[in-house]
Amino acid sequence: MAAGTGFGETGFSKDEDHNSRRSVMMAITTAPGVTQRMLANGHLELTCRESSRHIECEPVAAAMWIALKQHNGDIDQAAEVLSALWETDPEDTRYDLIALAGSLCSLGMAQED
User: How many angstroms separate the CA atoms of 58 and 80, rounded?
Assistant: First the structure.
């Protein structure tokens, strides 16, 4: 488990080679009762009706969330698209997506299906 992500076992270690990583299908979706809204400043606003929790994500996190939504919550596909767009290492991008997903899950804004 990545430190501080609040996310369960994923079979992923940032130091592992991509080909040696266990294949884990993890789909991240919006938790029930959570609404999402893009703000004019590029931030993403998530609000939970049940808990009245409200968070605002920076533009990079918003882009990650959009990529997850566009790829039906598939972290691997979202990481591939974002790493190509941002010219970053796909494994580093995947690791960052897992951290974001874990944070959103621990806040009750997202869930793993």
Answer: 20
